[in-house]
Amino acid sequence: MGELLIKERQIVIPGEELARGMDFLPSIGTLREGESIYSTKLGLASIKEHLIKIIPLKGKYLPIREDIVIGIIKDVGLSGWSVDINMPTNANLPIGEAVRDRVEILKTDISKYFDIDDIIVAKVLNVSKSRIVQLSMKDYGLRKLRGGKILKLSPSKVPRLIGKKGSMVSMIKEYTKCEIYVGQNGYIWINGDIKNMYLVEQAINLIEQEAHMSGLTDKIKNLLEKNKILKGDSNE
C-alpha cells in the first residue's frame, strides 16, 4: 500500500519526496524515481484522489486554448492588433476575430475599433509550438473595457483570487461594489469608487503574499469587514 508523505497545500521544495508506492501517480511539477514521487518545483502540493501535482508559487503565464485573458493593445497594424497578455512576446488579435463589420483593410483605420492602451477581454484561440498566441473576441462577454485600471497577480495565484465556484472574487465584489474582471494571465481589471478600488488592490496584494497560507478567505473577509464603511459606496 502506498504512503503519502505530504498534506494538501503543503509547501514543498525541489527534490522533496512526496509519496511512496505505485498507488500514487505523478503529474505537473513531479516525477517518479523507482517507487517514489518527488517534487521538481517550489510550490503547493495538490492531491486529487491518487494524482499529485505541484502548483508553482511563482511562474510565468503559460497560455492554453480557451483561456480568458485581459489584454492591453500595444500596436495597431494593417489587419489586426498586437496585445500585451503578460507574456514575453505580445499576442496577435486579427481583425476577423475582433469585429463583426466587413472591413476593407486598405481603406480603414482600424484604430477606430481598438487603439493603443485600450484594455480588452479576449480568449486564447490558438497557441503555436513557438508560443505565438492568437486571440479572439468572438464570444459572449468579450469586449473593450472602459476606464478602470489594471492590477497584476502571479498567474499561478489566479485560482485563489477566484475561489471555489467564484466565491472569493464574488465576496470582494460584494463588499467593494467594484467591477472586477480576472484574466487567467494574471491581469485583473477593476473599476469603481477610488477608495473601494484601493480596497480591492489591498485584497489582491494579500492574496499575492499569502496564497499558500491556510485561512486566506477569513483574512480577506476581515480586511473587507474592517473597511465596511466603504460597503455600498459606488461611482455611479
The fourth-level CATH homologous superfamily of the largest domain is K Homology domain, type 1
Low-confidence stretches: 230-236
**Rg for CA atoms:** 21 Å
Q: What is the overall pLDDT average?
A: 91
Tell the overall outline: flat
Give the name of the CATH architecture of the largest domain. Answer: 2-Layer Sandwich
What kind of sheet is the major sheet?
Answer: 6 strands, antiparallel
Structural class: alpha+beta
How many β-strands, per DSSP? 17
| CATH T-level fold name of the largest domain | Ribosomal Protein S8, Chain: A, domain 1
> Which class of the largest domain in CATH terms?
Alpha Beta
Count structural domains: 3
Fraction in helix:
10-25%
| Continuous helix count | 4
Helix and strand pattern: EEEEEEEEEEEEEEEHHEEHH
Q: Report the portion of residues in β strands.
A: 25-35%
Tell me the span between the first and last alpha carbons. Answer: 61 Å
Question: Can you walk me through this structure?
Answer:
There is one protein chain. The chain is an alpha+beta fold and 236 residues long. It has 3 domains: 3-56, OB fold (Dihydrolipoamide Acetyltransferase, E2P) (Beta Barrel); 68-145, OB fold (Dihydrolipoamide Acetyltransferase, E2P) (Beta Barrel); 149-230, 2-Layer Sandwich (Ribosomal Protein S8, Chain: A, domain 1). The protein has helices at 158-162, 167-176, 194-210, 216-226; strands at residues 3-4, 11-12, 17-20, 25-26, 30-33, 36-39, 43-48, 51-56, 68-76, 80-84, 91-94, 119-127, 133-136, 144-145, 149-152, 179-182, 187-191. The strands form 4 sheets. Strands 9, 10, 11, 12, 13 and 14 form a 6-stranded antiparallel beta sheet that branches. A hairpin with a 3-residue loop joins strand 9 and strand 10 (80-84). Helix 2 packs parallel to helix 4 and helix 3 runs antiparallel to helix 4 (216-226). It starts with a strand and ends in a 10-residue tail after the last helix. The model is unreliable at 230-236 (pLDDT under 50).
